Automatic annotation (TrEMBL), chain A:
The keyword Kinase does not apply. Pfam families: POR (PF01558), TPP_enzyme_C (PF02775). One of its GO terms (biological process) is cellular respiration. GO terms for molecular function: oxidoreductase activity, acting on the aldehyde or oxo group of donors, iron-sulfur protein as acceptor; thiamine pyrophosphate binding. Residues 306-468 form the Pyruvate/ketoisovalerate oxidoreductase catalytic domain. Keywords: Oxidoreductase. It comes from the Bacteria. This is 2-ketoisovalerate ferredoxin oxidoreductase. InterPro entries: 2-oxoacid:Fd_oxidoreductase (IPR051457), Pyrv/ketoisovalerate_OxRed_cat (IPR019752), Pyrv_flavodox_OxRed_cen (IPR002869), THDP-binding (IPR029061), TPP_enzyme_TPP-bd (IPR011766). It comes from candidate division TA06 bacterium SM23_40.
From TrEMBL, chain B:
Residues 246-340 form the Pyruvate:ferredoxin oxidoreductase core domain. PANTHER family: SUBUNIT OF PYRUVATE:FLAVODOXIN OXIDOREDUCTASE (PTHR43088:SF1), SUBUNIT OF PYRUVATE:FLAVODOXIN OXIDOREDUCTASE-RELATED (PTHR43088). The keyword Oxidoreductase applies. One of its GO terms (molecular function) is 3-methyl-2-oxobutanoate dehydrogenase (ferredoxin) activity. This is 2-ketoisovalerate ferredoxin oxidoreductase. Keywords: Coiled coil, Oxidoreductase.
Length: 488, 350
């Protein structure tokens, strides 16, 4: 049955130990099958280039699923069609290796069509050997994307039709339209001349990888006597007479000479480099802040129009709380609440581990527009605070069991030169009224949150303005509210 | 150590990098896109690889490749994308490749929505892909745990040569909390002798999941099963809160467990003996602990963001020792503490 490969190259095992059964010297391929010949040509090229130790061979799903029985190189067997994706991962993780993706036409052009297209387009630095035998050999002779019009297979029992299955796909032509690939050629293995041409192409494609030039692919028209249900000799005739006219042999792309080799950067990264890369290098100070104990929990809803800096307000409070050792959570509005141009976030500052980050019953509401005040006032807990922008909102909270804190945030921000600082005025007022975090802490956190210097000073001024307001309100009401202790 | 106020999704990526992960392959999907974006931002700065793959199928297969070459590698997605990764996860398990995969679960079935849900419990915890395999599944409930479990996941993936999953949700991913990041781990002494690295030492190696002969495949499955048994013995993780005298035991994971913690506090203020048992690993499941608690408690109340998936595992563990009730919301609706408390009070009134 099987075909013996004479005089084995080093990159093929002498004895196929991985192959089950007693015969460890014959391949599992049918007589006249193209796979065995192409294996030999690839192994010879690996030998010639002296890269056997560096080579990783990716076996696909198809008749060549067991290519790892034969190749004396690193072997990886993969899912149907995914060889180019796996090869991508291999080559990126091990850039010095020589990666070969070996695929049939069902594997490459049908189920894995997008994977080959995208790998070629990324210009992955590996080599693809594409066996085009116009059929699914392994599963018993079904139609492939490269099956010819009129060709009978088990799933085109009346012959492939244009109407039902479309035209056979010409892979080389298709991939050659991409910018990235450097070398694409179609060959055949019908006679000595064509085999010699295939040998050259295989070598060239691998050299292209060794030289780090880019993506290379060789399509090889190959016979599948079993799938085609013909004698091996007839199979070769079929390739010449039927396949070659539709799949012309030749070089479809060769820009090897024009392309510069892709640089191989090898650099070691120290712990310090990694901390810097992750922007964790200056988190030290915060890490040392002691945790507060027993200061109750402030559960806030902060709401307004999109563009008023609502999320930022919450973030600045949470950041400061963290610096001062509080447990904090910040959750942006999510889902249905987000609709209609409103923005809101949930912020919790607490002396102990925070349970639900979602604030269902806030004890502090910061409302920077009227719809937010109207919408969220009812949910506030008894005795809670409502801090609202009295320069924008023309009504007052209606509940009598809460503490209203009117702050003309927008007006004060305008006086400082920018409406956009209203959020920081509001934050300052909350701090001034409750001392939930320190004024200094809030100002110290700014440079981490705002990048532009002039914005830092504007925000600082706004916070201070707000703090004044908060203090005045507190003095007026003559109640010390602390940090919302005990409330939730 | 460094503390940073950070989103759970970002913390996951930083944790991964600190654990030595040097490649990320992913396809964008809400609410997991921040993970890909953070990886795209940070990987190049630490000498790692980021590729926006052409699909989730491609992404998990790129992970398969990088893991084959012995690299710590990961991918992440959300429900529909996670469904697409299942074949690849099965291959990784079959070929014994360590890797980490996060699923930031959203509403389903179909396109569903982008809000937090837990409807992927079955497909994440029970295999999902084909064949006899198991994976450790972590269910973090804070930004800190997104970092910590991401780091731990890489160690366990290596320890068992098996994929490790992180099942999270939109809230845990989007929420910002302070996270204490440790120093980067000196990439631990890994046994990479099995990998295929493109060098003389690993030239004889093969990464594969095919075992054509039934006896051979059975032997391979036995070997895998021995690992899974070991995981069940040693990797169960859970957390309890006010559990020792609890008459009503709440069970929930991920973001739900955060809400349940608030429920317990409020119930205790009202004098109700309510406790919380929170599975941290969804597989292996803390069945033994639940069985022990079944002797003590009057009722279990399982709360899930699905029509009831984990509840089946709770029922199996409880074995009719105590009633197991279910309270569920789905489609992205997250119950408030008050709502669940109301449910408990209704239960007590009978
Ligand atoms: C996901 C998946 N779908 C289908 C199969 C079944 N299958 C195995 S080989 C194959 C076709 C292989 O044909 P081709 O790539 O042309 O290679 P050949 O066998 O002709 O060398 C198919 C469909 C599979 N293994 N996995
Ligand atoms: S079925 Fe075809 S492709 Fe497969 S081994 Fe036989 S001849 Fe070769």
């Amino acid at each position: 049955m099987a075909k013996k490969i004479l005089k084995k190259p080093d990159a093929l095992y002498d004895v196929f130990e991985r192959k089950p059964g007693v015969d460890k010297t014959m391949t599992h391929y049918c007589p006249g099958c193209g796979h065995g010949i192409l294996h030999k040509l690839i192994a010879e090229a690996i030998d010639d280039l002296g890269v056997a130790d560096r080579t990783i061979f990716v076996s696909p799903v198809g008749c060549s699923v067991f290519a790892y029985y034969y190749f004396d190189v690193g072997n990886v067997q993969v899912a149907h069609g995914r060889a180019p994706a796996v090869a991508t991962g291999l080559k990126r993780a091990s850039p010095n290796s020589i990666v070969i993706s070996y695929q049939g036409d069902g594997d490459l052009a049908a189920i894995g069509g997008n994977n080959i297209l995208q790998a070629a387009n990324r210009g992955e630095l590996f080599t693809v050997f594409f066996i085009n035998n116009g059929i699914y050999g392994m599963t018993g002779g079904q139609m492939a994307p490269t099956t010819l019009i009129g060709q009978k297979t088990t799933t085109t029992p009346y012959g492939r039709t244009i109407r039902n299955e479309g035209y056979p796909i010409r892979v080389c032509e298709l991939l050659a339209t991409l910018e990235s690939p450097v070398y694409i050629e179609r060959t055949a293995m019908t006679d000595a001349k064509n085999i010699a041409r295939t040998r050259r192409a295989v070598r060239k494609a691998l050299r292209c990888q060794v030289d780090r030039k880019g993506f290379s692919l060789v399509e090889v028209l190959s016979s599948c006597p079993s799938g085609w249900k013909v004698e091996p000799r007839e199979a070769l005739k079929w390739i010449e007479e039927k396949m070659m006219p539709y799949f012309p042999l030749g070089v479809y792309k060769d820009v090897i000479e024009e392309r510069e080799p892709v640089e191989l950067v090898e650099r070691t990264y120290t712990s310090a480099d990694i901390m810097k890369g992750l922007a964790l290098a200056d988190g030290e100070a915060a890490a040392r802040a002691p945790r507060h104990e027993d200061v109750g929990e402030m559960a806030m809803k902060i709401a307004g129009f999109g563009g008023q800096g609502i999320l930022f307000l919450g973030l600045a409070l949470a950041e400061t709380g963290m610096d001062e050792g509080l447990h904090v959570t910040w959750l942006p509005s999510y889902g249905p609440e987000m609709r209609g141009g409103t923005a809101n976030c949930h912020v919790i500052l607490s002396g102990r581990r925070v349970g639900a980050p979602l604030v269902s019953i806030p004890n502090v509401l910061i409302a920077l527009n009227r719809p937010s005040l109207e919408k969220f006032e009812p949910a506030l807990s008894e005795g809670g605070l409502i801090l609202y922008d009295s320069s924008l909102i023309d009504i007052s909270p209606s509940r009598k069991d809460i503490i209203p804190l009117p702050v003309p945030a927008t007006k004060l921000a305008d006086e400082l030169g920018s409406t956009r600082a209203a959020n920081m005025v509001a934050m300052g007022a909350l701090i001034g009224y409750t001392d939930v975090v320190s004024v200094d802490g809030a100002i110290a956190a700014l440079p981490r949150l705002v990048k532009r210097d002039e914005l830092i000073s504007l925000n600082e001024a706004a916070i201070r303005k707000g703090v004044e307001q908060g203090r005045q309100l507190r003095a007026k009401q003559k109640v010390a509210v602390g940090t919302g202790k005990g409330a939730r | 150590m460094a503390r940073e106020l950070i989103k759970g999704n970002d913390a996951l990526v930083k944790g991964a990098i600190l654990a030595g992960c040097r490649s990320y392959f992913g396809y964008p999907i809400t609410p997991a896109s921040e993970i890909a974006e953070a990886a795209a931002r940070f990987m190049p700065l630490v000498g790692g690889t980021f590729i926006q793959a052409e699909s989730e199928v491609a992404a998990i297969n790129m992970v398969y490749g990088a893991a084959s070459a012995g690299q710590r590698t990961m991918t992440a997605s959300s429900s529909p994308g996670f469904s697409l990764k299942q074949e690849g996860i099965s291959y990784c398990a079959g070929s014994e490749l360590p890797c980490v995969i996060a699923n930031i679960v959203r509403g389903g079935p179909g396109l569903g929505n982008i809000a937090p849900e837990q409807g992927d419990y079955f497909q994440t915890v029970k295999g999902g892909g084909h064949g006899n395999y198991r994976v450790i599944v972590f269910a973090p409930n804070s930004a800190q745990e997104m970092c910590d479990f991401s780091m731990l996941a890489f160690d366990l993936a290596d320890k068992y040569r098996n994929p490790v999953l992180i099942m999270s949700d939109g809230f845990t991913g989007q929420m910002m909390e302070p996270v204490d990041f440790p120093e980067p781990k000196p990439v631990p002494e890994r046994d990479e002798s099995w990998a295929v690295c493109g060098d003389a030492d690993t030239r004889p190696n093969l990464i594969s999941s095919i075992y054509l002969e039934p006896e051979e495949l059975e032997a391979h499955i036995k070997k895998l099963k021995a690992k899974y048994d070991e995981m069940q013995r040693t990797e169960v993780r859970y957390e309890e809160y006010e559990a020792d005298d609890a008459e009503i035991m709440l069970i929930g994971f991920g973001i739900v467990s955060r809400v349940l913690r608030s429920v317990v506090d409020r119930a205790r203020e009202k004098g109700l003996k309510v406790g919380l048992l929170r599975p941290i690993t969804l597989w292996p499941f803390p069945s033994k602990r639940i069985a022990q608690r079944a002797k003590q408690v009057e009722t279990f109340l399982v709360v899930e963001l699905s029509t009831g998936q984990m509840v089946e595992d709770v029922q199996l563990a409880v074995m009719n020792e105590a009633p197991v009730r279910l309270y569920w919301r789905a489609g992205g609706v997250v119950p408030t503490a008050e709502e669940i408390l109301g449910e408990i009070e209704k239960m007590i009134e009978g």
